[in-house]
Amino acid sequence: MSLHMKRLASPRSWKIHKKSSTWVPKPTAGKHSIEQGVPLGIILRDYLKLVDTMTEAKRVLGNREVKIDGRVAVSHKAPVGLMDIVSVPKTNKNYRVVLDSHGRVVLTEVTANEANWKFCRIEDKTTVSGGRTQLNLHDGRNIIVKEKTYKTGDVVKLAVPEQEIKAHYAFGQGMTAFITGGAHVGEFAKVQSVEVIRSPRPNLVALTSGETPFSTVKNYVFLVGKDKPEIAASEVSA
């Protein structure tokens, strides 16, 4: 497996110039896939413009000046993906990772209070010793709970870095969702109904964005609130 990546081969979801140089850092294997996880060094240099070179980014990270989800990050290859919180204490700035209307990874600035939590979608769940349930979340976390009310596709509001569940959003009619793929990527919409497909194909979800109805696969629907979205999707200017 290659440890390097040419800039021209970088995923389309990375909002970077394709021809300004030859190489870019390749994200380490971890909580986000290579298509959905942008290396932290690129976030500091190309997105936030806090440094001019990758060498400077490594020096900043080596000084333990950047946090992801409340924990210090030291690797310039650490993947940063959907709903992650990037904090730079020296600048008193915090950012949440979302997607724009082209499906590219972007950052939106949040307050210090908003930086204390993040949304995590339940991708799977298993039963562990003692009859407890382990929730497998979209960012690679595993949380053990006693309650049986959590289902795949639901979303939890997680305090970071404590990993304490602050709220549970059950997938259902009337919930507000953020669309993470398809023609409506980057939009907020209201869940209307779910069509269960009796085949290997994914279930379909009917939604409305304003007055416009549409449908998409359930994997693209990420709950972000009940009556209204609890996050913003305004992009930080690069």
Overall description:
There is one protein chain. This protein is mainly beta and 238 residues long. It has 3 domains: 5-112, Structural Genomics Hypothetical 15.5 Kd Protein In mrcA-pckA Intergenic Region, Chain A; 117-169, OB fold (Dihydrolipoamide Acetyltransferase, E2P), CATH 2.40.50.740; 176-225, SH3 type barrels (Roll). It is built from 2 helices and 19 strands. It has helices at residues 40-47, 54-62; strands at residues 5-6, 23-24, 38-39, 67-68, 71-72, 79-80, 85-88, 93-99, 105-110, 117-127, 133-137, 142-145, 155-159, 164-169, 176-179, 188-195, 204-209, 212-217, 221-225. The protein has a 5-stranded antiparallel β-sheet with strand order 5-4-7-8-9, with no helix packed on it. A 5-stranded antiparallel β-sheet has the order 12-11-10-13-14, with no helix packed on it. Strand 4 (67-68) and strand 5 form a beta hairpin.
Describe the structure in brief.
With 238 residues, this protein is mainly β. The chain is 7% helix and 37% strand. The strands form 5 sheets. It has a 5-stranded antiparallel beta sheet with strand order 5-4-7-8-9, with no helix packed on it. The protein has a 5-stranded antiparallel beta sheet with strand order 12-11-10-13-14, with no helix packed on it. Strands 18-17-16-15-19 form a 5-stranded antiparallel beta sheet, with no helix packed on it.
